User: Which sequence fits this backbone?
């Protein structure tokens, strides 16, 4: 299928509404949760299995939840996400619902309790529509051996990226307005960038991870994927906060994140690592679009300040060293079934034993270096800006490569370079759409200081109020 850029349109289909728009309509009585749920289910029927975003559909259960939400809106007892459909990446435990981790090794796994973030979404009134596709154990490849590849709604030949592949595709194509992703080296931000979404990797510990299958306990994050900054803030307000079952969980903020959406950005300063590692391996046309997006940001009254991050070239290797060591600790029992894993997942796990304890400890000691360097570079600034991605999504294949303009590099080299450093530092990082190239979305990334997601929401919200990039939707039908 030939994919061309589609102009923003105003759809009347509830499946195309944001969570904030749905809540406004529920409150006004012009739509009901049941109607929104049926619209999303109809979109799922129209786009599956072509997109292949869903592992476990939950239509009957969702309609029952939506009916309860109808009654709550009528009774005036609506909760923060009352009646809003959402999806969960299938590494998030759900009581009585299969949680496969995207793997044949967990085909019969049915948790007896919800993950903390899943329980919080349910308690806030959200309607769970489906468990969504993932790279195997959040660290496999685009060609999932058990469930097949998830296809990018903008071009079905291309990957959504991962590992939150189903979350990216499902939100982009309108199957759900909200989804949960997880991020160890970019797994929220890569599919958000490739699918034209807004996604935030919160500060490390902002969202409790109890009940979420782990990959690397010092690098793992969980967070929202949506179609707008406002929806990400709305969802993060629900899932963030302390949890006695997660010793890394942060205390709640005094003000809700949605309160940051309407603050003025004039006079704010944003650091940019010009010409450094974070802008290497970048396709020239993607680089040109990034410069245009920076002009749009500056037009809001934001000052762009050039800074240096000389040590960040070492960040991906440092991060992968930590991931390999911690993955081996968490997944060593999966060596027995390694032949049942997909090729990339098996190769990553197979490489893990070659990381020594000395390598791991050296990498952990380097982490404060990156944190101090980033803090120094951002001194006097409110955030850091980078490309969300430096190349277009690669064509789906067992071994994928990225075109960075006249040469090709392994896709993880291109995708992780702007993402993995901020898993190392634990910084919050927000990806949002910033343009189009060859019919595919492009993106910006805004990085904040630890525990300062609010500033990112302020900047991102102002950018989306002034531009229309986030309003673009992939052409329908989603895939040939």
Assistant:
């Amino acid at each position: 299928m030939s994919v061309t850029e589609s102009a923003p349109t105003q759809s009347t289909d509830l499946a195309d509404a944001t969570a904030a728009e749905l809540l406004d309509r529920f409150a006004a009585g012009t739509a009901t949760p049941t109607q929104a749920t049926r619209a999303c289910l109809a979109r799922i029927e129209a786009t599956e299995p072509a997109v292949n975003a869903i592992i476990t559909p939950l239509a009957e259960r969702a309609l029952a939840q939506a009916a309860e939400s109808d009654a709550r809106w009528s009774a005036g007892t609506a909760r923060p996400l009352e009646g809003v459909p959402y999806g969960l990446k299938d590494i998030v435990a759900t009581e009585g619902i299969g949680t496969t981790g995207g793997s044949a090794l967990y085909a019969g796994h049915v948790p007896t309790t919800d993950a903390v973030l899943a329980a919080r979404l349910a308690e806030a009134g959200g309607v769970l529509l489906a468990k969504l596709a993932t790279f195997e154990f959040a660290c496999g490849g685009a060609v999932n051996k058990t469930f097949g590849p998830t296809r990018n709604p903008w071009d079905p030949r291309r990957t959504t990226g991962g590992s939150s592949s189903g979350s990216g595709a499902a939100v982009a194509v309108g199957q759900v307005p909200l989804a949960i992703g997880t991020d160890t080296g970019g797994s929220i931000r890569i599919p958000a960038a490739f699918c034209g979404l807004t996604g935030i990797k919160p500060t490390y510990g902002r969202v409790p991870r109890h009940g979420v299958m782990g990959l690397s306990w010092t690098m793992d994050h969980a967070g929202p994927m949506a179609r707008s900054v406002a929806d990400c803030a709305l969802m993060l307000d629900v899932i963030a906060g302390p949890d006695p079952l997660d010793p890394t969980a942060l205390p709640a903020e005094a003000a809700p994140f949605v309160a940051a959406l309407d603050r003025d950005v004039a006079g704010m300063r944003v650091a940019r690592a010009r010409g450094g590692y974070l802008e290497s391996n970048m396709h020239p046309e993607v680089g040109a679009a990034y410069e245009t997006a920076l002009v749009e940001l500056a037009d809001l009254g934001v000052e762009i300040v050039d800074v240096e991050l000389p040590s960040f070239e070492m960040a991906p290797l440092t991060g992968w060293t930590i991931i390999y060591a911690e993955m081996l600790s968490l997944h060593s029992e999966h060596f027995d079934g390694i032949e049942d894993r997909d090729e990339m997942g098996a190769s990553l796990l197979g490489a893990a034993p070659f990381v020594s304890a000395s390598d791991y400890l050296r990498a952990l000691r380097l982490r404060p270096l990156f944190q101090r360097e980033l803090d120094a570079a951002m001194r006097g600034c409110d955030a850091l800006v980078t490309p969300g991605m430096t190349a277009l999504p690669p064509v789906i294949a067992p071994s994928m490569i990225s075109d960075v303009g006249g040469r090709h590099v392994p896709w993880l080299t291109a995708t992780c370079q702007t993402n993995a450093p901020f898993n190392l530092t634990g910084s919050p990082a927000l990806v949002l759409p910033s343009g189009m190239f060859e019919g595919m979305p492009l993106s910006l990334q805004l990085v904040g200081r630890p525990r300062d997601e609010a500033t990112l929401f302020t900047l991102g919200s102002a950018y989306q109020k002034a531009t229309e990039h986030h309003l673009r939707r992939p052409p329908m039908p989603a895939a040939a």
Remarks:
- The two ends are 6 Å apart (CA to CA).
